[in-house]
Amino acid sequence: MTPTRQGSIRLFRFAGIDVYLHWLWFLAAYYLIKVYAPAYTSLLWPVLECLALFGIVLLHEFGHALACRQVGGQANLIVLWPLGGVAYVAPPQRPGATLWSLAAGPLVNVALLPLLGAAWLLVRSAGGAQVMPDAYHFIRTVFLINTVLLVFNLLPVYPLDGGQILQSLLWFIFGRARSLMIVTVIGFAGVAVLLGLALLARSLWFGILSVFILIQCWNGLLRARALAKVDQLPRRAGLACPSCRQAPIIGPIWRCENCRQPFDPFAAPSVCPHCGTRASACRCPECGVLQPLANWVVAPPPLAPAGY
To answer: Domain boundary at 133, 154, 175, which?
Structure first.
């Protein structure tokens, strides 16, 4: 249910990040414009309000992507769709790096608060509510949209930013697998609350959002169980992924590029026992980054100076 480039339109590329817009966004925009229209005297203003929502979500996702790159991760795709936006980020698998990549999105909304708030107060002090009611209502609504998005995103419900930030904080204490297990359980409780709100408000949007969160919580629970099993597997000493610094697992968990049979490329002589193809690179199962085998070698620590 998470959006992908399939069914999306490529809008532009900035800082090496491709931005796509899913076709369902146009249906959501049409619905929102119809909802916003009665508050204005001209159709231009609800269109601008919808574009402002688009811009705020886009800036939020760029916050995630650029922060991920800052800590050495990969981020080259953003997809916007009716339920918001998704920045496809792969930060190094360390709690601190993941925490910064996640927190940077809401921090963009925090930075927008004083700017939009000052614009609202300025227009109100100039008598904008009477002189230019459309502009006044527009600025006030954009300020409220940014505030609501910030508060909603910080709810400690997985997979919202707040839930993932909580998981990164718990990672320091409980480890990656257990922290993910905890926040997915909290997420299921959040789904129950959202479903109740959807029924009370008879809101289709809340209902769809609840289903999306439910699916993501279930996927997160399955991933937590898989990570728990991975954490128990033996690791190869002296080697580490250049991206996430995790030691490779001992065993035939990689597939040969030629015959697709499982083998261990780190076992000398790095040749597939099924077809004889020599492995030149492998993808880290932790962070998903493809790295040349030579880059996995970790230099030994320097020798301490000998005593006299």
So the answer is: 154
Encoded tokens for 177: 């697998």
Look up tokens 């990656």; give the residue.
176
The secondary structure of residue 249, as a DSSP letter, is B
Q: Evaluate whether 162 touches 151 at the Cβ level (below 8 Å).
A: no
Omega before residue 252 within 30° of 0, cis: no
Residue 127: left (phi > 0), alpha (psi -120 to 50), or beta?
A: left
Q: Residues 8-17: pLDDT tens digits?
A: 889 999 989 9
Same domain? For 20 and 99 the reply is yes
Which of the residue ranges 5-9, 175-179, 226-230 has the most confident prediction, judged by mean pLDDT? 175-179
- Cα 272 to Cα 261: distance, rounded to the nearest angstrom: 8
The shares of helix, strand and coil residues in the chain, as percent rounded to the nearest 5, are 55, 15, 30
